[in-house]
Write a structure and sequence with these properties.
This protein is of the alpha/beta class and about 140 residues long. The protein is built from four helices and five strands, in the order E-E-H-E-H-E-H-E-H. Strand 3, helix 2 and strand 4 form a beta-alpha-beta unit. Helix 1 runs parallel beside helix 2.
């Protein structure tokens, strides 16, 4: 399946809302992301992962882009939502250098982000309980 220039989708992963961005970064993609984040905030989705790892041409070296990203997420953060951003290694390195977005939580995979939001150790099998059946 070919990725359009601005593919923005929403789905659920283990009860956490995932906003997946793919394709070339553009003003259109940024506006669609902002509209969906506002819709999520209005509908009280308080556990959200924004996945930007599949986007191309993201202006990570531009400080105004980071400020715009944080501004777009404020609609959820203001409602005490748990927000996690999934990015590539390069995006994470740029985020760690930028003092404006240090308050945001970053992950390298969707699974890591969902586990962090849910409070589950990644790679754990969850709670194990033994059951005995009568013969």
């Amino acid at each position: 399946m070919a990725i359009s220039s601005a593919d923005v989708t929403i789905y659920q992963h283990s009860g956490v809302t995932i906003l997946n961005l793919a394709g070339e970064w553009s003003d259109d993609m940024q506006q669609r992301m902002r509209d969906m984040l506002l819709a999520l905030a209005k509908s009280a989705h308080l556990e959200v992962v924004v996945n930007i790892s599949k986007t191309l041409l993201v202006p990570v070296s531009d400080p105004s882009w980071w400020k715009a990203l944080e501004s777009n997420l404020q609609c959820l953060i203001a409602h005490h939502a748990s927000v996690n951003i999934v990015g590539t290694d390069a995006q994470l390195q740029m985020a760690s250098r930028n003092w404006l977005v240090r308050s945001l939580r970053w992950s390298t995979s969707e699974e890591e982000a969902v586990c962090r939001i849910r409070g589950v150790l990644q790679g754990s099998a969850g709670i194990k309980c033994r059951a005995w059946f009568e013969e």
